[in-house]
Inverse folding.
């Protein structure tokens, strides 16, 4: 009898062991805005006011600050979780690295200010800890989360204001030329293959133009940079015009005439995915600077 | 003629990207960059230690041996060169890691001792030093993790076919990586002591 009970227990234990192999880390939440609240702590008006404040700050100073509230970071420590968030969100400008994230793990009663490389001189570890200990956590202890976060963010902005940073620019971002590197072979082969195809359909000049534009559109879709797309398009055109890999002019096209019913997959170009309301990190990097605290 | 040129261009671009030479180069550079970040953060910690020792000294003079331990470990760390050449010499790398590990454990002993001095713990300067130390330790962790990832990537590149042939020709070897520093300590069960520690006479 007892033996059978043990048997059942053992089987159940084994089943559980396989069903739940290990507690996985908390996934990094999507960057839906400057304030991401996964706990429902802040009211929508709180979030709107905070976001507005942070967005005005970015327009004025160029530096991005984001707020994240999660229920828990278990099994990780808040430091490990928040560096993962920072690496995923890339808050702050690229090469300036002037981003900061205020991470609150509500049920763990832990919070952290994660500071990007460019702000480590202003938001030092000591300053960050003082903001946490003297501004934020006293309000958290009273249960005033919105007030604590708002006051903390105000103080962070005031500190960052004292830091000389590059002026925020409104120019169109051209992707680095480095980004062409990995694309070069692809452009080459796409131009050769597609070029051969188009040329046998449309003749040399028209086919090359078609190839160039297709390669350009593809580059635009992949990289989202008009400058690079233009270069790739021109390269595609030239290659298709010069290259002679497929026997185009001759009629020896193995019987299988190109059925030009290539159901075009609907390139809805012009979806420039830059809605005025959306927010994305500018590519800033972090190295674990900042401070943590609890209340 | 054009046909031949095109084929040649295609082959050249393929062979350059495919023998892994460029990948090895860029990953090697990445490792160097990550390594200097690691060294940079360790240096930051070493610079903090004397201030920390001094601020503890003011309140806890009788903890001579602990303070001495930290000072000695700090001196040892300072005497080891951490140039990128260390990365090609597993023995030197081991030595560097051992010295840093010793400083880590000396520091943690010091922090345990400070628990007995409430006045020290409420001292503003000590508090600031502690948050600097915490931040630095966190930066070290981040830098080390990034170094570990970069080395993993590089080692896989160097060992996989056909890059291993390229690596052999140019003499690129696998790089050493960080291991758990206190393996010995982890593998022995901790002693639980239920006797209350004697209160330090102030």
């Amino acid at each position: 009898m007892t033996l059978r009970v043990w048997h059942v227990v053992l089987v159940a234990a084994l089943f559980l062991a396989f069903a739940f192999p290990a507690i996985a880390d908390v996934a990094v939440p999507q960057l839906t805005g400057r304030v991401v609240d996964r706990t429902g702590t802040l009211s929508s008006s709180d979030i709107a006011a905070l976001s507005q404040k942070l967005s005005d700050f970015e327009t004025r100073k160029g530096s991005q600050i984001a707020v994240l509230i999660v229920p828990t970071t278990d099994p990780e420590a808040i430091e490990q979780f928040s560096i993962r968030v920072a690496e995923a969100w890339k808050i702050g400008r690229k090469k300036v690295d002037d981003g900061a994230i205020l991470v609150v793990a509500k049920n763990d009663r832990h919070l952290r200010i994660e500071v990007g490389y460019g702000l480590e001189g202003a938001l030092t570890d000591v300053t960050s800890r003082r903001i946490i200990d003297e501004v934020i956590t006293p309000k958290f202890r009273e249960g005033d989360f919105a007030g604590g976060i708002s006051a903390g963010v105000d103080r962070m902005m005031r500190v960052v204001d004292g830091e000389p940073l590059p002026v925020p620019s409104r120019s169109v971002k051209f992707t680095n030329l480095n980004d062409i590197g990995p694309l070069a072979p692809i452009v080459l082969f796409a131009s050769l293959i597609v070029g051969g195809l188009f040329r046998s359909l449309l003749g040399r000049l028209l086919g090359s133009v078609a190839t160039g534009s297709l390669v350009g559109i593809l580059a635009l879709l992949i990289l989202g940079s008009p400058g690079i797309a233009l270069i790739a398009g021109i390269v595609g055109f030239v290659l298709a015009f010069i290259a002679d890999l497929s026997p185009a002019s001759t009629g020896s096209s193995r019987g299988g005439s190109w059925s030009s019913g290539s159901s075009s997959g609907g390139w809805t170009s012009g979806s420039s995915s830059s809605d005025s309301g959306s927010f994305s990190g500018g590519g800033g990097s972090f190295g674990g600077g900042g401070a943590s605290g609890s209340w | 003629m054009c046909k031949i040129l095109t084929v040649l261009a295609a082959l050249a671009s393929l062979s350059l990207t495919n023998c892994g030479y460029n990948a090895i180069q860029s990953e090697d550079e990445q490792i160097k960059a990550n390594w200097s970040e690691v060294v940079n953060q360790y240096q930051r910690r070493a610079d903090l230690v004397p201030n920390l020792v001094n601020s503890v000294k003011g309140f806890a003079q009788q903890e001579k041996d602990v303070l001495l331990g930290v000072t000695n470990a700090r001196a040892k760390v300072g005497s080891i060169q951490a140039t990128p050449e260390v990365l090609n010499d597993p023995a030197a790398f081991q030595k560097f890691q051992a010295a840093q590990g010793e400083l880590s454990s000396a520091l943690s002993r010091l922090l345990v001792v400070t628990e007995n001095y409430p006045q020290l713990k409420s001292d503003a300067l000590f508090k600031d030093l502690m948050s600097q130390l915490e931040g630095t330790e966190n930066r070290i962790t981040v830098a080390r993790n990034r170094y570990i990832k970069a080395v993993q990537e590089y080692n896989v590149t160097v060992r996989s076919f056909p890059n291993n042939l390229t690596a052999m020709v140019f003499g690129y070897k696998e790089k050493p990586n960080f291991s758990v520093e206190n393996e010995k300590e982890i593998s022995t069960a901790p002693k639980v002591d239920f006797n209350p520690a004697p209160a330090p006479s102030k």
Residues 197-202 of chain B have pLDDT under 50 and may be disordered. Chain B touches chain A through 22 residues (CB under 8 Å). Residues 82 and 171 of chain B are 22 Å apart (CA to CA). The radius of gyration of chain B is 24 Å.
